[in-house]
Design a protein that fits this description.
single chain, 289 residues, alpha+beta, OB fold (Dihydrolipoamide Acetyltransferase, E2P), 2 domains, five-stranded antiparallel β-sheet, three-stranded antiparallel β-sheet, 9 helices, elongated
């Protein structure tokens, strides 16, 4: 059960969505060049040469173009789902890459009649062969490119994290403010100076509050969005993730990772994420006078 939870947590981690803008165009060009180079240099899959309707160079151009068209189709599909792009996760990335490879393999099958003079082109055998070959090559590319891209994002965000100053915000009053929950009997007063962060857990929110030298947890039935609204007048409290509200004054350390920023807060062991779509707002609040 613990291993299942770990896998679920891993798959739900935020992941950088790079299938848009200039990054996508760069990825498209890189895919074409890598596909061409791989096929020209290694000629990886044996095909009966007399069946060729064109030169091997043109065949590699067709294969590389089909792969790029498959990636372009994936891009167009994702344009329809802006919320999905904003909340992209490791699980989404794995499913997306699998879908892209399946689409590319299907495309390679559909162009067989253009490339090969073979009466059995339209058979399940060749369809499965094209999909298999696409996954073999695609997984090789992914094994090379993903670690490089992960390392690039990690280093870039580490540099950005090192340049961020401490919170440049006015002093909070430190007064206790009333927090209304979904259960009237569960309402309470929150000291904004002692509030460290809040984490959404289903229909509940766990509050992490400093009391003396210890950090106490309080579980309340309230949505994180409702809590954000009630704390909107507190300059140091901001949303950094769909599941987290934090007090900027309790940030101990900011570090970068491939998804964005990771925050270490005073007195707690859990690192809090700054999701990709929240980064501009977080940076603005950290640098605002």
């Amino acid at each position: 059960m613990a291993s299942v939870t770990k896998i679920r947590n891993f798959l739900s981690q935020p992941y950088h969505f790079y299938y848009e803008g200039k990054t996508f165009l760069t990825l498209l060009g890189l895919l074409f060049v890598m596909a061409m180079a791989f096929n020209l240099l290694f000629e990886p899959f044996n095909v009966y040469v007399p069946e060729h309707k064109m030169s091997y160079f043109l065949i590699t151009v067709v294969h590389a173009t089909v792969a790029c068209l498959a990636l372009l189709c994936f891009y167009l599909v994702m344009r329809v789902f802006p919320d999905q792009r904003a909340n992209w996760t490791v699980g989404n990335e794995i499913l997306g890459l699998g879908g892209f490879l399946l689409l590319a393999g299907t495309g390679q099958f559909l162009v067989r009649d253009i490339i090969y003079d073979n009466p059995y082109n339209w058979t399940w055998r060749f369809y499965l062969e094209e999909v298999r070959n696409t996954f073999l090559v695609g997984l090789l590319f992914i094994a090379i490119l993903l670690p490089l891209n992960f390392n690039r994002l990690y280093l870039a965000n580490q540099r950005k994290a090192g340049l961020l100053p401490g919170p440049q915000i006015r002093e909070d009053s430190g007064s206790e403010i009333p927090i209304g929950t979904q259960l009237k009997s569960d309402d309470f007063y929150l000291n904004t100076d002692h509030f460290i962060y809040a984490k959404s857990e289903g229909n509940y929110v766990t509050f992490y509050i400093r009391e003396g030298h210890a950090v106490q947890k309080k579980l309340k039935r309230i949505s994180i969005s409702d809590l954000e609204t009630q704390l909107s007048g507190i300059p140091s409290v901001i949303r950094t993730h769909r599941s987290y509200l934090i007090n900027l004054r309790h940030i101990h350390r900011i570090s970068g990772n491939a998804q964005g920023y990771k925050l270490e807060l005073n007195g707690v062991d859990e690192a809090v994420a700054v999701s990709r779509k929240m980064i501009p707002h977080f940076e603005a609040r950290m640098t605002a006078g």
